[in-house]
Design a protein that fits this description.
With 484 residues, this protein is α/β, with parallel strands linked by helices. The chain contains 15 helices and 19 strands. It binds ligand BES, manganese (II) ion and zinc ion.
């Protein structure tokens, strides 16, 4: 869907969208008493996210009045506004929507964010729906935002359109089933990132074996799909500045392995690569907007399968760091993949900061539901920065505790550690496991996004399905902290 900005209402046929703040404004009054009476009849109160559609009003075939809420900051209102409009009009028959922001006092950024939320909400993936009825197909091709003031078009093109493209890539990868996207094809699907100036490097299983990545390879061992380690570099910052490292869990399907999961709901585990998906989506956004930052991205891509060759509960593996792990539960595989990916990035790129993203534990859904991603870090400064980026971007985070009493719970009688603790505090012991692989002096945060990568119901910027969680957060974090 195309987003553009204009000074005045265009000619031709379009659905006119007026924010509720303008219900008393001239634009509505000019339509006569009918619309105002209809709004009243429908008990429209201007709440953010609400909308009422009126037909055959003067000058436009359809008129959509949308609520923007009261006392909501323009940035937050903008987010709901664009999404509400698109949710209502996407398959409505309308091809063009014009959102008139005149007199609302939105600055260029807030107006461009209306465009962002509109574009994000329009994303869908119909590749495999060959029998979709015409009336269920999207009709909306274009959104024009009017009355936004100078600079909105530029702000859109330079900042938010890149982010939208990044989120779209993540959603596509997360949506694709595991027979289509597995380690090798994940890499092929994102190889076009190299055309944007991103350095692109790939290790296969044999190369990882030479490096001693026994934890990641132990997970991959049961699958006929060879694992991959994808390494991305964006060098938009000062030469020699230590990079930010983004590390993603990319389990392209998680059956649990020999510690197999119940059949009910297992199909959800196609999106167990949501962390890796967010990393490549963020890279796409950063490259498209030519971010002035040095960033390295690592995706640990494996399929976790049971088979005659799969790793067994009780196996001891040696990680790239040299530390040994007793694999009590083969379903706690994400932390094994992350451990070696983190060692790899520290050895080769000496990052100042590492942020890892992973659909790591079911326990985080018990703690935070689908409202927040879990943030784990021992570094208060880094926590503040990530929480602030979360607030600004809309990808919400909640800080969770870490601490020695939790670390103790993963000691093993036979190896340096085991890969699971007790059920209680399961997300925290998982984070403590990863922490054991982070070198002294490196700032590190872990984001458990198991509750956020996928949504069973539509939100203001996504339909049900893949959300692209993490891309906007990482983009904002880079903008806030790594770009001068
Ligand atoms: N990928 C799952 C976590 C998950 C669960 C993500 C539900 C999204 C929705 C992860 O690999 C896993 O299986 N974790 C186990 C850990 C346990 C064995 C300690 C879990 O959470 O049950
Ligand atoms: Mn698992
Ligand atoms: Zn998993």
């Amino acid at each position: 869907m195309q987003v553009s900005f204009a000074d005045r209402l265009p000619d031709g046929d379009f659905a006119l969208v007026l924010p509720a703040d303008r219900v008393d404004a001239d634009a509505i009054k000019a339509l006569g008493d009918g619309p105002a009476a209809t709004l009243k009849l429908q008990r429209f109160d201007g709440d953010a996210g609400s909308a009422v559609e009126l037909f055959q009003s003067a000058g436009a075939k359809r008129l959509l009045v949308v609520g923007t809420g009261k006392g909501i900051a323009p940035a937050a209102a903008a987010e709901k506004l664009g999404g509400t409009v698109v949710a209502r009009l996407l398959t409505s028959g309308a091809a063009h929507a014009v959102i008139d922001l005149t007199g609302l006092g939105y600055d260029a950024d807030a107006a461009a964010r209306v465009g962002l939320s509109a574009a994000l909400r329009s994303w869908r993936y119909d590749r495999y729906r060959t029998k979709l009825k015409d009336k269920h197909k999207p009709t909306l091709e274009k959104v024009t935002i009017v009355g936004a003031g100078a600079g909105a078009q530029q702000r859109w093109e330079q900042r938010w359109q890149p982010v939208m493209e990044g989120v779209a890539l993540t959603r596509e990868l997360v949506t694709e089933p595991a027979n289509i996207i597995y380690p090798e094809t994940f890499v092929e699907r994102v190889r076009h990132l190299a055309d944007l100036g991103i350095e692109f490097e790939v290790l296969d299983g044999a190369a990882m074996k030479k490096l001693g990545m026994g934890a990641l390879l132990g997970v991959a061992q049961g699958s006929v799909r060879d694992p991959r380690l994808l390494i991305l570099r964006w060098n938009g910052g000062q030469d020699g500045d230590a990079p930010l490292a983004l590390v993603g869990k990319g389990v392209t399907f998680d059956t649990g392995g020999i510690s197999i999961k119940p059949a009910q709901g297992m199909e959800a585990m196609k999106w167990d690569m949501g962390g890796a998906g967010a990393v490549v989506g963020a890279f796409k956004a950063l490259a498209l907007r030519k971010a002035k930052a040095n960033v390295v991205g690592i995706c640990g891509l494996v399929e976790n399968m049971p088979s005659g060759n799969a790793q067994r509960p009780g196996d001891v593996v040696t990680t790239m760091s040299g530390q040994t792990v007793e694999v009590i539960n083969t379903d706690a595989e994400g932390r094994l993949v992350l451990a070696d990916a983190i060692t790899f990035v520290q050895r080769n790129y000496k990052p100042k900061t590492i942020v890892d993203l992973a659909t790591l534990t079911g326990a985080i859904l018990i703690s935070l539901g689908h409202e927040w991603g879990g943030l784990f870090t021992p570094d208060d400064g880094l926590a503040t920065q990530l929480l602030s980026a979360a607030d600004t971007s809309g990808d919400k985070l909640w800080r969770m505790p870490l601490g020695e009493p939790f670390d103790r719970l993963i000691d093993s009688p036979i190896a340096d550690m085991k890969n699971v603790g007790p059920r209680e505090g399961g997300s925290i012991t998982a984070a403590e496991f990863i922490k054991r692989f982070v070198d002294d002096g490196v700032r590190w945060a872990h984001l458990d996004i198991a509750g956020m990568a996928w949504s069973d119901k539509a939100g203001s910027t996504y339909d049900k399905g893949a959300t692209g969680f993490g891309v906007r957060l990482l983009d904002q974090f880079v903008a806030d902290t790594a770009e001068g």
